[in-house]
Amino acid sequence: MPTAEAEIQELASREYKWGFVTDIEADSAPPGLNEDIVRLISAKKGEPQWLLDWRLKAYRHWLTMQEPHHWGKIKYPPIDYQSTIYYSAPKRAGKYKSLDDVPREILETYDRLGIPLNERAALLGIQQEGHTPVAVDAVFDSVSVATTFQKQLAEKGIIFCSISEAVQNHPELVQKYLGSVVPYSDNFFATLNSAVFTDGSFVYVPRGVRCPMELSTYFRINARNTGQFERTLIIADEGAYVSYLEGCTAPQRDENQLHAAVVELIAHDDATIKYSTVQNWYPGDPVTGRGGIYNFVTKRGRCAGRNSKITWTQVETGSAITWKYPSCILQGDNSVGEFYSVALTNHYQQADTGTKMIHIGKNTRSTIVSKGISAGHGQNTYRGLVKIMRGAENSRNYTQCDSLLLSNTCGAHTEPYIEVRNPTSKCEHEASTSKIGEDQLFYCRSRGLSLEDAINLIVSGFCKDVFRELPMEFAVEAQKLLGVSLEGSVG
Amino acid sequence: MSSPLLEIRNLHAGLKDKQILKGVDLTVHAGEVHAIMGKNGSGKSTLVNVIMGREVYEVTQGEIRFDGKDLLEMDPEERAREGVFLAFQYPVEIPGVSTSYFLKAAVNACRKHRGLKELDAAEMIRLVKEKMALLKMDNSFMNRAINEGFSGGEKKRNEVFQMAVMDPRLCLMDETDSGLDIDALKVVAHGANTLRRPDRAILIVTHYQRVLEYIIPDFVHVMIDGRIVKSGGPDLARQLERHGYDWVEKEAAALV
User: Fold this and answer.
1) d(CA A68, CA A387)
2) How far apart are CA B107 and CA A387, in angstroms?
3) pLDDT, tens digit, for every residue of A156-214?
4) Which terminus of chain A is more exposed, N or C, with fewer CB under 10 A?
5) C-alpha dist (Å) from residue A37 to A95, A122, A188, B209
6) What are the chain B neighbours of A446 within 8 Å (beta carbons)?
7) Quick check: helix, strand or coil at residue B75?
8) ipTM computed for the complex
């Protein structure tokens, strides 16, 4: 009788389902990075002078910076920034006037990505009965190709468009908020992004408006050797509410591709922003670890106003390397920051992820729930900072950090930092590490569940606290994705 | 007589460096209740775990046939689907997985294998309600994560409840009585007794005769050092209760 381990190993070699390439003509800049490329990107997008100046400032600053190799628990060969293409757009780029103008191949691509039915329909502008509508902004390589439901949203005064469009149509908002949470000089990858970002989403929800639908972006890296540098900016004005979903996939390539995005969130008084991510970039070859996305992302939210709230929920199952720390600056009194995370590393994937909660205002509260799952040769690190500043009277943090190991060759690491400068505050930290139990697996199997189902069941249970923070359809998708990513992973 | 439901011949099994079962022979027919008694470490629990297919135990010799099929060729889940059920001595906790979700998945995996229609949510609730009443269980059970935060008694009751829901043909009960107070024992025994059917067999592993006052076995076997050394009727259990195991050991030694 084969052992459970052997069987699990055997199941391990499922291919990456989204590893196809869409054949469309692209308008690309030559590889390499210099001031001319920055100018070219800006010119292609018809940007105002202030934005070009900002990009150039970032670029010049970037030249003085070092890639942060020393502190993250990740290993990768040096990235050749001169061989990356910084701008690639499908030919006939620019914003399509209607969905009929979007090349069929692109729509088919989203189709093949298995974007949930209602979202696919949404992408086509069809509202289905019984489904909560979801507005989708789709970023294909560097250009945003379709934004649905714009009109319906506009009636409520909500702006949801690509950031390029926002630069054209709402320059005052972009200029006011761009770089206000993640300054151009923030860190190596964010600074690079500031210099060369090509597109991304922009959301503005005006005072007192509750966004009536989930807003969503699907990213896909298609062209060879392109870096994807999106920039997302979400502003919830006083009393506003918005829930934003982000999904990511990429085709399979031999070379590692760079993805360095920046997301900035701003929540004013009494505003709430929920930002959910399901990340499924190509993780690299399961056997050699080659290829796969380098996901170096800076995500940060500012709870600027009183009683504001920002919730980050992420399910990270893909990428060769995941390096991201969605953070909250809790500036307004009584503001709330939350971080719910599932990070899964299988095969040769590496994840160094966590959050920063910076408590500045009084009575600020933060919750961190991190679930790390390691399988194969995966390395999974939780890295978190809870910082209570001097003025943050009565602030609270609760951190729960659990790791589940599925093999004897993987690793789980926890690096929590807590800095407290106010004696009235309270921080709690709980952590656990466990290996998926032979007894648990046997218990499930003795009830008739296959080994695979047993693993999925146990892992889903482990992640439950995070999944329940996701919007319903997304949670279902995330759970399936986890199952796929885990196949053949106990050893 | 009909062919046996469970037939174990010369079964040798153990951990990597420790032989535990040293030639077990046992024949169980449908409709029968068998009890296996013995001291700690005699191999009783190992036996039922090996029947269920626990992979930490290695079978080195012998065979187990269930309804004529070679059980040792099957994975644990196949054995379950064929109709073998183990009520665990120490049921494990599975955090975050509700009992209802778990049971529905389990029941349907087995039903599918047996060529039966899978139960939908409503049918499942009906089935579960009926069995919960049988075990005098609270409705909240179903929404709690499996065994998480359950008391010892609740865990055991949950095992017998699952046994009732899963509708197995062979029920293996591994010291289900241990850790139960007398009231809980009566409930669990009542549950097990209602499961007695002409087409189903029950194999109870226990230290104590007490449970056998409530679930009257047809056969009692004494296991010593990995072998069944004596078999008899319900009286044998009472004898053991009164006189301990020493006389059986001596008797067995004399026979060798």
Assistant:
1) 21
2) 49
3) 999 988 888 899 999 999 999 999 999 999 999 999 999 999 888 899 999 999 998 88
4) N
5) 21, 35, 18, 86
6) 52-53, 76-77, 79-80, 85-86, 88
7) coil
8) 0.96
